Amino acid sequence: MSCTRHNERTRLLAHHRRPLCIKQEATVKPLRYRDVPRAVNATHQAFRNNTMQRYFEDADPAPCRDSRATISVTVGFAEAIRSRRSLTVDRGNAILLFGVPSNNEPGPVTKLISPILRKGDLPELRKRKMEFRVRIIALVKLALGPGVDEMLEIQGLATAPSKQGRGFATALVHTADLATSRCTCGCPGGARAASIYEECAVPSASGREQADAQGRKTYVITGDAQGFYETVGYRLVGEDWLGIDNPLWEGPLVPIRVMLREPRTPHRYSDGEKCPSGWT
């Protein structure tokens, strides 16, 4: 396990870094219940060739595997909508789920059905899930420390393959990031993005001020998507591998990575100074 960058060549996606205060090229909205079937399908398609997904599926040959996965993902989206922790572009074709301090626990339906779904897990799958949990808990503790409890977390990001390359994922991540370090120039780009995020991210029951969501670090646990997250301002702070001591796994080692984005200090533009977003 390491908290330093692994010396490997990672293919970066063809995106350019943009200023924090940006004009949205894709319309980001809260995910709605009617979008869930499309979001579930987009997620399955997007992760079909994911290295970590293959690692778990290799130990889960049961014929009902896809049905169990569909139920789990569907419930996850529904509860993220209920707790206002989900964003989308194109009505479910691109989705982002996030966790916020004090609103990051599994919902009641997830707690109810997860034990039922796990009953179908074969021994090898249970072993690999435990391997992941043990390694990721240790890695997060080592890489992020006790301050992780005050950070925002990107818990899921997917774009349907037919919609990739249009900047949807970038727009979703920027929308979440803008809420943590809002531009103070008054441009509608930053204000609009922050208001969308706050509508979803700050539950009325939490009693938090809107400004409470600002100035926080954001982290994500990923595997294959390191290159993408680097293009949107995240850096690798921790890395480990699955399958190291597993003789039943014949594929390559499976990366698990913790990436972090520091909050940016808002820039206040003086009279006559233009915001780089292009908003007027």
From TrEMBL:
Q: Which CDD domains match?
A: NAT_SF
**Source domain of life:** Eukaryota
Protein name as catalogued = N-acetyltransferase domain-containing protein
Q: Species name for this entry?
A: Lentinus brumalis
